[in-house]
Amino acid sequence: MPLLVSTATALMLILTDNLASSALAQGDAIKTTGWQPLCKLTQTLGKIPALAKGRLAHLRTAEQTARAAALKIHVYALTKADPSIVQAYQALARVLQETASDAANALQTETANAIDATYYASDMYGRAGGFLNFLNTAQTATTQTGYCLAGTGAAHPNGLFKPAQCGNSEPSLAVHTTDITSSEQTETGFADFSTGNHADNSGSGNSKCQLFNTGSSSASEVFQASEKVTILGGLVSITPNSASSTWHINDGQAVAAAGIAQETNLLTKTYNKVKALNNARYPIYKETELEAVKQAAQSPNLKNILAKIIKQENPETTSADNVAATLISKTFGDDGSLIDQLLKDLANTSVNGAKVAPTETVEIRMLNKSQDLQDVLDFYSRQRAKSIKKLTEEIQQEYKATKACKESPEDKEKVCNEAGDDQQKCKALEKEGCVFNQTGETNKKCKFDATKAEQQATQTATGAGTTTVKCSDHKDQATCEKANDGQPTNVCGWKGENSDGSDKGTYKCRDSSFLLNKQFALSVVSAAFVSLLF
């Protein structure tokens, strides 16, 4: 601090010159009650930068740990097929996300407190420590008649002053989170601060410290006037008078009342900033993954979140709270007793999406970066979207095929006839069983063909890329039923009518697409839900 250095240098030169040449009576020295509390102040303020650093490091680590754990549990949930287990994991991850958000908010608030406290504490530390060590340097370590820092009574301190304990070294930055004690910072000020006059033998002019000489415009005195002077940001006020000198801490007033200071100077501002940092309180956050997840599993909010998820899945339920409590106990154990095993299983579970190749798997324990975990979540989200799209398309095709089966031949004929003699329009209706007859009746060359309709329905039901079975080619029951070999479900059946109820009478090998479609839809739904998870 250039200003402090220049001020100290000027005082040093003045005092050194005057101590060597002035024959005038000198003023009083400073009692131990006037300088030792200032030394203790530097010890307290020297802890602030490291305390601020420690608080911020703790909150930052807690926030990062909770957020990473939440992402890992979200990823782990994607590997589970049991919907209730997935719900429990999602609720646990939500609690961890909230913890991370709370820690981030606390970090933001604490950062402001830390910057303020460090700034003011360091400023006051430098001023107080610099001035005290300047006075100590100006006097010898052994008994002499001229000195400003007194020891017992008015005697020379004779080594009582310890520079290293009075701000003569840089504040420690060794990270810690230990609070400043109530004896170091009290409700009225700092340790051992008192309101009295700390100039020894005031009024007797005991010829100890040139600093307190009566002010004079002559070049032989430190001060040009005997008026009170406030120095060190309000920490000390001095009245330079050989007959009635004074040395007051904070002008002889308490720094604060009930833990709050009126911010009139650097000292009172420093008091409040240190108090704000020291008194900041927030929930107990855990810095390790295991402890953070255990804490989340025991959070009262876990049941509330899980109950909400259960109600969203089943709005009619009236026992969501009880179901949630049972599921929490089953999944995480009482008091989080199953969390250790859960995290071990999680760590060894392999997932897709972290590598470029979609089929390449990685164990979750290897995913320590938030971005890697997010990549996995994004991958599974895309796979889920694809599965839903595919399911929707297949169900729509199934619906069309089923609807077509329910229509009468006459209705189907009308649909085909709407294409008239336009071969291209008729071709577009092939899935409806329409065929184009070039020699057919004018405006009705697009005709319905029941056999073609059965083939199209079978093809839709069994899926693209499978072999189409033409049931009408089989003339006996044995070969008709054998046609179902290798198919996901029965395609043909020896029946006395078509699937839509038409052509009743003769038993022959007919398409079973109506039954097939029902079974197919159910199998697609089941497969889709599984594919959403794997």
UniProtKB/TrEMBL annotation:
<keyword id="KW-0449">Lipoprotein</keyword>
<protein>
    <submittedName>
        <fullName>Variant surface glycoprotein 1125.119</fullName>
    </submittedName>
</protein>
<dbReference type="InterPro" id="IPR019609">
    <property type="entry name" value="Variant_surf_glycoprt_trypan_C"/>
</dbReference>
<dbReference type="GO" id="GO:0005886">
    <property type="term" value="C:plasma membrane"/>
</dbReference>
<keyword id="KW-1003">Cell membrane</keyword>
<dbReference type="Pfam" id="PF10659">
    <property type="entry name" value="Trypan_glycop_C"/>
</dbReference>
<dbReference type="GO" id="GO:0042783">
    <property type="term" value="P:symbiont-mediated evasion of host immune response"/>
</dbReference>
<dbReference type="InterPro" id="IPR001812">
    <property type="entry name" value="Trypano_VSG_A_N_dom"/>
</dbReference>
<dbReference type="Pfam" id="PF00913">
    <property type="entry name" value="Trypan_glycop"/>
</dbReference>
<keyword id="KW-0472">Membrane</keyword>
<keyword id="KW-0336">GPI-anchor</keyword>
<feature type="signal peptide">
    <location>
        <begin position="1"/>
        <end position="25"/>
    </location>
</feature>
<keyword id="KW-0732">Signal</keyword>
<comment type="function">
    <text>VSG forms a coat on the surface of the parasite. The trypanosome evades the immune response of the host by expressing a series of antigenically distinct VSGs from an estimated 1000 VSG genes.</text>
</comment>
<keyword id="KW-0325">Glycoprotein</keyword>
<dbReference type="GO" id="GO:0098552">
    <property type="term" value="C:side of membrane"/>
</dbReference>
<feature type="domain" description="Trypanosome variant surface glycoprotein A-type N-terminal">
    <location>
        <begin position="12"/>
        <end position="380"/>
    </location>
</feature>
<feature type="domain" description="Trypanosome variant surface glycoprotein C-terminal">
    <location>
        <begin position="416"/>
        <end position="533"/>
    </location>
</feature>
